[in-house]
Design a protein that fits this description.
This protein is of the alpha/beta class. Helices cover 22% and strands 20% of the residues. Helix 2 crosses helix 5 and helix 5 packs across helix 6.
Length: 432
C-alpha cells in the first residue's frame, strides 16, 4: 500500500477551528502537509492526498454536510483516519455498529491500577510503534469488528474495539477509526499519554505512507566579524556535529533567500551590522513563517526585526545583578551546564548585562538584574503565523554564546543544546 500512495500529495489535517485541534496540529505540523478548515472542504479536492486525518473534538454537526465527500475519498482509494468521541454514523461502512460506554473508573491512573483494555491478538503491526501504554486513558464508546476490519485495541471481556483498521476497502481505500481523543487532551496539555500517542502515531503514519521528512538538522553560523574566534569558532563543528547537525559557515553579506532556503537554524553572533540585517528583514520573516529557526545574540540599538526591542542594561552594582540565573529550563538547555554556565574565563557580565522586552507569548528562560526586579536575559518565542507553522526565535541579550561555558563536563555545549531544543520543538519531540 505504501508504494501506491507515494505518488499522492501527502497528509491533510481537517480541523473545525477548535483550539485543541489547532494546537495539536501546530505541535505535529512537521508530519502534516496541509491543514484544511472543515467549512472549506467543498473547495478542496481530497483525491490527491495519501491520507486525510480528522482529529477528535470535532463538532458532529459540522461533519455531516461533508459526509459524501469524505466517503467518496475512501471509495476512490483514499486513506481516512478518524478520531472521535461517539458514533461516526456518517461513515459508509456496512455492518459497523457503535456502543456507548467508558472506563470503569475515571481515576484509574491515580490508583496504580491498569485499564481494562488490551492489544488484540495477534497484535496489529501498529503496536510495534504505539505501545498499549500510549493508548491508555479513556474512550468514547466502542465498535464491533465488522467483516474486513482488524481490531487494534479492545475492551477486556468482549466489550468491543476502541481502534479499528479497515486495510482493504474498495479500490485500495483504507480507514483507521478510533474512539480515542488524543488531539483534544494533547491540545489542552492534559493527560500525557495522549501526547505520547501522537508522538508515536504521526511518525508511524508517515512511515506507513513511505513519506520521509527532513531531519531539521541544517545549522548555519552567520559570519559577522572577522575576529578569528568570532569568524570561525574552533570547537563549534565538533559540538554541533556530535548533536547530529550539519553546519555551514556563511558570511553575513551573503544572507538572502538562497542561504535561508538551505538551513533550518540560523545563528547570528552578537557583533553584527544592524543596518544590513534590517535590509534583509523581509527574507528573515519569510524564513520564520515557513518554519525556520533563529538564534540571535544581540544588544539591539536599532532593532532590525519588528518583534525586537531596544536593549537595556541592568545596574552593574551590586555585582550580583549581572549573575545570570536560570528561570525556566523546560527545554533542558541549561540543566547540564552547571552553576557557572554564564562565566567565561571566570568573568561574569560577559554573557548578558541586560535585556530586551520579549513579545507576547514568549517564554522567559533566564534572569539578569536584581533578585527583586529580574529581567529576561534569554527568551524563546514562536513566530505567529495563520497556519501555525512559524519557526522559533531564541533571543540572547548578550555576547556571542560561542564562548559559554568554557569549563565543566559539558564545556561548549550551550549552542548545541539550544539548537537541539529548537529541532525538537520543530518536530514535536518537545511542546512549546
Amino acid at each position: 500500500m505504501a508504494d501506491a500512495k507515494t505518488s499522492r500529495k501527502g497528509i491533510a489535517y481537517i480541523h473545525w477551528g477548535n483550539s485543541w485541534q489547532l494546537r495539536s496540529f501546530q505541535d505535529f505540523r512537521h508530519y502534516i502537509d496541509d491543514v484544511i478548515y472543515i467549512h472549506d472542504l467543498p473547495k478542496v479536492d481530497l483525491t490527491p492526498y495519501a491520507a486525510v486525518v480528522m482529529p477528535d473534538a470535532m463538532d458532529a454537526a459540522a461533519v455531516l454536510p461533508h459526509a459524501p465527500q469524505l466517503n467518496a475519498y475512501l471509495k476512490q482509494g483514499g486513506f481516512l483516519i478518524v478520531f472521535l468521541q461517539g458514533h461516526a454514523d456518517w461513515l459508509d461502512i456496512p455492518g459497523l455498529e457503535w456502543s456507548p460506554g467508558n472506563c470503569r473508573d475515571w481515576l484509574w491512573w491515580t490508583k496504580g491500577e491498569t485499564l481494562e483494555i488490551s492489544l488484540s491478538a495477534p497484535a496489529h503491526p501498529i503496536a510495534q510503534s504505539i505501545p498499549l501504554s500510549h493508548m491508555s486513558w479513556h474512550w468514547g464508546g466502542s465498535y464491533n469488528v465488522p467483516q474486513g476490519a482488524r481490531s487494534i485495541v479492545e475492551i477486556d471481556d468482549g466489550g468491543g474495539s476502541l481502534f479499528l483498521d479497515f486495510p482493504s476497502l474498495a479500490n485500495g481505500g483504507r480507514l483507521l477509526l478510533a474512539t480515542l481523543d488524543p488531539h483534544s487532551h494533547n491540545g489542552q496539555r492534559f493527560m500525557p499519554a495522549t501526547t505520547r500517542f501522537l508522538r508515536s502515531f504521526y511518525p508511524w503514519l508517515n512511515r506507513e505512507l513511505g513519506i520521509k521528512r527532513p531531519e531539521r538538522n541544517r545549522f548555519t553560523y552567520l559570519q559577522c566579524s572577522h575576529v578569528p574566534s568570532e569568524w570561525h569558532p574552533e570547537w563549534i563543528e565538533q559540538s554541533l556535529g556530535a548533536a547530529g547537525f550539519e553546519i555551514e559557515f556563511a558570511p553575513l553579506y551573503q544572507l538572502g533567500f538562497e542561504l535561508l532556503e538551505r538551513t533550518d537554524t540560523l545563528y547570528i553572533p552578537s557583533s553584527h551590522d544592524e543596518f544590513f540585517l534590517k535590509s534583509r528583514a523581509e527574507d528573515l520573516l519569510a524564513y520564520l513563517a515557513r518554519g525556520g529557526n533563529l538564534i540571535i545574540c544581540a544588544e539591539p540599538c536599532q532593532p532590525w526585526l519588528p518583534f525586537m526591542t531596544p536593549f537595556h542594561a541592568v545596574a552593574p552594582r551590586p555585582f550580583s545583578n549581572i549573575k545570570v540565573r536560570i528561570r525556566d529550563d523546560r527545554f533542558q538547555i541549561f540543566s547540564d551546564l552547571g552553576e557557572g554556565f554564564d562565566g567565561w574565563q571566570g568573568i561574569f557580565g560577559q554573557y548578558a548585562r541586560g535585556w530586551s522586552d520579549p513579545p507576547p507569548g514568549a517564554i522567559w528562560l533566564t534572569d539578569v538584574g536584581p533578585e527583586n526586579d529580574p529581567k529576561p536575559a534569554d527568551w524563546l518565542w514562536q513566530y505567529p503565523t495563520r497556519d501555525g507553522r512559524g519557526g522559533y526565535v531564541f533571543m540572547h541579550n548578550g555576547d556571542n554564546m560561542t564562548r559559554y561555558p568554557d569549563h565543566g563536563p559539558k564545556k561548549e555545549a550551550l549552542i548545541a543544546n539550544i539548537a537541539t531544543a529548537l529541532r525538537k520543538l520543530s518536530t514535536g519531540e518537545l511542546l512549546f
